[in-house]
């Protein structure tokens, strides 16, 4: 399949999926900031309400409202105005047809060149990256992309409602095991925006300085892996060509 070449690919629309509020800010908000700064339209879809996260005693409704507000504020800081929430329960996300149908509908509506999702494979080096909801999010997105998004007979009620089948060019997965990473984006110039976005999720970070040190160290390691200059920072992805120049029907 094709190899992603940023210089030759036209990207005008991107749809990003996450299991919880703050997942995208850890995994991809620097890349999102570079896209929006270049005029790319980016939208977020958060599958759960993050209602099982936090460190104080609040009702589920209060936690949900807080996490929605935090995610909207974080998204705005990196140039994203539209955040969709699917409302699934935190810790109970499954790649079922209720979720997949909503993913298909969003992709067919926006018709992006890139869909960003969480990786489907467990990362044994740092298992916290592979929360069961993360894996379920990645699986739901991947299953939806092929074949359902491009198959008019999948969820026919969507086709009947005017959401025509669509061949997505690229799937970018974040939170990948190191051996799957095949593309990196430099985020040095927008790194402070990434940190600012992460700081919006105060309900989730009892030690903000430690969180920031970790994110900087991880970004520096990816900058080094990309062969960038000293002090450069980057985010890593597993990029998959869904419909490349050499793609034929069914293969």
Automatic annotation (TrEMBL):
Cited PANTHER family: LMBE FAMILY PROTEIN, N-ACETYLGLUCOSAMINYL-PHOSPHATIDYLINOSITOL DE-N-ACETYLASE-RELATED
Keyword Zinc: yes
Recorded superkingdom: Bacteria
Upper classification of the organism: Bacteria, Bacillati, Actinomycetota, Actinomycetes, Micrococcales
Name of the protein: PIG-L family deacetylase
InterPro entries from the UniProt entry: GlcNAc_PI_deacetylase-related, LmbE-like_dom_sf
Signal sequence coordinates: none
Bilayer-spanning residue ranges: none
Cytoplasm found in the keyword field: no
Species whose genome carries this gene: Paeniglutamicibacter terrestris
Swiss-Prot/TrEMBL keywords: Zinc
């Amino acid at each position: 399949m094709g190899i992603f070449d940023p210089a030759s690919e036209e990207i005008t629309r991107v749809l990003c999926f996450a299991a919880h509020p703050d997942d995208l800010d850890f995994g991809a908000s620097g890349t999102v900031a570079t896209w929006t700064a270049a005029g790319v339209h980016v939208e977020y879809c958060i599958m759960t309400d993050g209602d099982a996260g936090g460190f104080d005693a609040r009702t589920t409704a209060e936690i949900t409202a807080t996490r929605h507000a935090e995610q909207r504020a974080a998204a705005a800081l990196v140039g994203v105005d539209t955040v969709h929430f699917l409302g699934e329960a935190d810790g109970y996300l499954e790649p079922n047809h209720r979720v997949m149908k909503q993913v298909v509908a969003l992709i067919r509506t926006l018709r992006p060149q890139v869909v960003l999702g969480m990786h489907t494979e467990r990362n044994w080096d740092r298992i916290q990256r592979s929360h069961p909801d993360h894996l379920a999010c990645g699986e739901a997105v991947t299953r939806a992309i092929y074949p359902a998004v491009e198959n008019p007979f999948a969820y026919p009620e969507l086709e009947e409602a005017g959401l025509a089948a669509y061949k997505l060019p690229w799937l970018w997965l974040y939170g990948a095991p190191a051996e799957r990473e095949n593309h990196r984006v430099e985020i040095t110039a927008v790194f402070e925006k990434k940190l600012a976005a992460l700081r919006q999720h105060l309900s989730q970070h009892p030690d903000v300085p430690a969180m920031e040190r970790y994110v900087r160290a991880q970004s520096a390691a990816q900058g080094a892996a990309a062969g960038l200059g000293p002090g450069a920072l980057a985010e890593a992805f597993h990029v998959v060509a869904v419909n490349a120049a050499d793609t034929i029907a069914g293969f």
